Input
Amino acid sequence: MKAKPTMQARPFSAAALFAAAASLLSPPAQAETYVSAPRDWEINLQPMVTEVGHRIVSLHNGLVIIITAITVFVLALMIYVCWRFNEKNNPTPSKTTHSTVLEVAWTVVPILILLGIAIPSFRLLRYQLILPQGDITVKATGKSNWQWEYEYPKEQGGGFSYISAMLTEDERAKAIQSGRGTAHELPRLLAVDNELVLPVNKTVILQVTGEGIIHNFALPAFGLKIDAIPGRLNQTWFKAEREGIYYGQCSRLCGVNHAFMPIAIRIVSEQAYAQWLEDSKKKYGAIDAPSKIASAAAAVQ
Output
């Protein structure tokens, strides 16, 4: 006699349907902010988010292939020479002093290799150094107290400046507790009190100078590295392709607090950037004096 089917599975099916319906009706979880910073045991370049960075990675990978091929060739040649011309296999050594073909080969081949490296290198340098038409100009000044000052021109909706300094351990803990960001978004020795905020997919002209001490403005994910020299205005550019927080550091030995001079750039949407500009005018106050940001033509001169 067959046993009658039981109804024990029904409550579980109803619960599963209820959970599925709840998940569909509930709002989606907020996506975690993308953070670009050094990672433990990282052996490769940080993921790039600018065209300059992508080209740097491409050149780097090509050079790795060339260097690996040269290393393997030289190693194989040395092994062959040790085996072929040892005393056992070659009891009567050759008295040849030179070979024209060989000397021409080991002169011409390295020249061709160097030309193959130089051409894409010069193309990359040209792409980096020739500034395109910028959508936004911002000035970064490396201060003598190991902080960064950022200035936004009034002509582009700014007209204010502010100081960016590294968060201490206590300040970082309070920022995490207050919900300003997670521990992942505010890494130790890299998080700052005031980030440099810029919009995504906009060409940014970055003017860099120093005050009292030579610094270096470096951000790996942008392929960006430029000296901040007192009395000199250097320029570079970038166009970030992804929203997120990107961390860098001063890359010039600049004194006792060199290790505590991080750079934090937050890339946001165009709408969020416009709102941030309005809020920052009230927070930092307008600059009454004329803007210290030079035009691209004046800076080149």
Q: What stands out?
A: The radius of gyration is 29 Å. The mean pLDDT is 86. Helices lie at 9-25, 51-84, 100-129, 169-177, 270-284, 296-300.
